[in-house]
Design brief:
Layout: E1 8-9, E2 13-14, E3 19-25, E4 31-37, E5 43-50, E6 56-62, E7 71-78, E8 81-89, E9 98-103, E10 109-114, E11 128-132, E12 135-136, E13 139-144, E14 150-155, E15 165-169, E16 185-190, E17 212-217, E18 223-227, E19 231-235, E20 246-253, E21 269-274, E22 281-291, E23 301-309, E24 314-319, E25 321-323, E26 326-333, E27 336-343, H1 359-368, H2 387-398, H3 417-425, H4 445-455, H5 478-486, H6 506-518
Parallel strand pairs: 2-8
Antiparallel strand pairs: 1-3, 3-6, 4-5, 4-7, 7-8, 9-10, 10-14, 11-12, 11-15, 13-14, 15-16, 17-20, 18-19, 19-22, 20-21, 21-27, 22-26, 23-24, 23-27, 25-26
Helix pairs in contact: 1-6, 2-3, 2-4, 2-6, 4-5, 4-6
Length: 519
């Protein structure tokens, strides 16, 4: 009996002139024909190749010069054994990126979350490899989750608490919803969510589930979650995604902690989750407050909140503001958090600036006293910056002293209230509406460009630039982006894009601010 024919394309969407690989399996040592038809059933390309002894075959062809949006039918086979794929002429979608991977509590499934919506991956299970404690655990099924940014892998054997899990992918048929092809990735860490029996501080066995607190939060209203006095999570309105109530959970976990250098643990280790997702990214910053034991601090030590970075397998210091035995910090994602002690740093230098592309600008601004670093001596130039922080730097840099009286509902008790009022009075910064400024929202590149253009009084600028993603720039920001970019205050990226909705970093903010002062 003749073998069935399979066909895969390296991409189902490509521009005229791009090369596409068509490959698959057929009967061994058999001539396989490739026929490409347009929508009118006209043959636009015909070729043939002989399969190898294992039945593998491959064609490489160039996409013909057809109008964008045209669909081509790609057929491969022999006799009445035919496999088909649709190829659309147009810009391929962006390559999807894996953000996180985690098991369900039963250990029977791995969910992978991507940075965009994904297409149905059914039938691609052999393209994934899962290692559990170094041994292959076969994937039996791949399916699109109800959340279309996730793909679920069903395992042949459930994993257990404490198992070390890695997932790899060999490039094949998995794509985003807009036809961006998923690239290979190798041994990405999978967070093991299978619970274990915890132990109480006295050493006796607890009830079998870790100490936890849960609340259902309406994304449009926000709310708070607490675990006694030990943990408080404050979630503002619109920080959670979607419109339906979501369970937000914090649990104390029995974790083996590898301490950061020169530090000791001052609190329990906590894991934070939205639904069953422990690596959740918020649309706006939230506040986490953790209780710690100040008596454990030594001389010349301070407390700092750390989060655990699964990709680097290490704890990352994010600082925090201390009030008695409570330390609070703004974050934009969930993972594991804990409080550690750190040595009080020397205030004379920033520890993480040397070698950074924005180092000259940061050093100049730091020396002027307009900006400061974090308690651990770092500046964190690649961290995002809030609207309140940027407005404060802007007002200080331009040395504006004009008093302002405007107070938004969400700035009345905010530390940057006076700076925001000054910027508003000078028509530099506006709110989302008459009552909301969003001081703790991360500032976007287009918002930053508008404030800079106003501050530098850029008017009637000629020779403006056009970016490849010009249509993504909001209408209210286009003139300011054009003016600021033409003056060299804020630049685009090497791919000629501007990325207007991307959150600005601290390094970017310092750089464009100094450039605006010199414009």
């Amino acid at each position: 009996m003749a073998a069935e024919v399979s066909l895969e394309l390296s991409s189902n969407r490509a521009m005229p002139g791009n090369s596409i690989s068509a490959l698959g399996q057929a009967e061994s040592n058999t001539w396989v024909s490739l026929k490409i038809l347009d929508s009118q059933q006209n043959i636009v390309l015909f070729d043939a190749v002989k399969s190898d002894p294992e039945g593998n075959y491959q064609f490489i062809f160039v996409v013909p010069d057809l109008p964008l949006g045209s669909e081509l039918i790609v057929n491969a086979g022999y006799g009445n054994r035919i496999a088909s794929q649709i190829l659309t002429v147009g810009e391929p979608g962006a390559v999807p990126l894996l953000l996180s991977a985690f098991t369900n509590e039963a250990g029977s499934m791995i969910s992978m979350e991507f940075n965009q919506l994904m297409a149905d991956p059914a039938g691609s299970h052999e393209q994934f490899t899962v290692l559990v404690n170094g041994k292959i655990n076969p994937v039996t099924k791949v399916a699109l989750n109800q959340n279309p940014a996730r793909i679920d892998l069903t395992l042949s054997q459930p994993v257990k608490h404490g198992d070390i899990i890695k997932v790899s992918y060999t490039r094949g048929t998995v794509q985003s919803a807009d036809h961006g092809v998923l690239e290979d990735f190798d041994q990405q860490t999978v967070k093991n969510m299978v619970p274990a029996t915890s132990k109480s501080p006295g050493g006796s066995s607890a009830s079998g589930t870790p100490k936890s607190g849960t609340a259902a939060i309406n994304p449009k209203q926000g709310g708070s979650v607490s675990l006694g006095k030990e943990v408080i999570i404050e979630i503002p309105a619109n920080a959670l995604k979607g419109n339906t109530e979501l369970p937000v959970k914090v649990q104390q976990i029995d974790a083996t902690v590898s301490l950061p250098a020169d530090s000791k643990l001052l609190s329990s280790v906590y894991e934070f989750m939205v639904g069953n997702q422990s690596n959740y990214n918020f649309d706006q910053p939230i506040i986490i407050k953790l209780q710690f034991n100040p008596a454990l601090l030594g001389e010349n030590e301070i407390a700092a909140i750390y989060y655990y970075d699964e990709s680097q397998s290490k704890w990352i210091n994010i600082g925090g503001t201390v009030s008695g035995s409570i330390i609070s910090v703004q974050v934009d994602h969930f993972t594991r958090f804990a409080v550690f002690s750190i040595p009080i740093p020397s205030p004379t230098a920033l520890s993480d600036v040397e070698g950074h592309w924005a180092a000259p600008y940061i050093k100049e601004m730091y020396a002027s006293g307009v900006i400061g670093g974090y308690p651990d001596g770092s500046f964190r130039p690649d961290n995002h910056i809030s609207r309140a922080e940027f407005v404060t730097m802007l007002v200080k840099s331009y040395q504006w002293e004009t008093a302002g009286s405007k107070t938004f509902a969400d700035t009345a008790k905010h530390w940057a209230r006076d700076y925001i009022a000054v910027a508003y009075a000078r028509q530099i910064a506006k709110g989302y509406n008459d009552t909301r400024f969003g001081p703790d929202d991360y500032i976007t590149r287009e918002q930053m460009a508008v404030m800079l253009a106003q501050a530098a009084e850029l008017r009637n600028v000629t020779g403006t630039r056009t970016f490849s993603d010009q249509e993504r720039i909001s209408p209210w920001a286009r003139e300011a982006v054009a003016a600021a970019s033409s003056k060299g205050i804020i630049n685009g990226y090497p791919d000629k894009s501007f990325k207007p909705k991307d959150k600005a970093t601290r390094g970017e903010a310092i750089t464009v601010l100094l450039r605006s002062l010199d414009s």
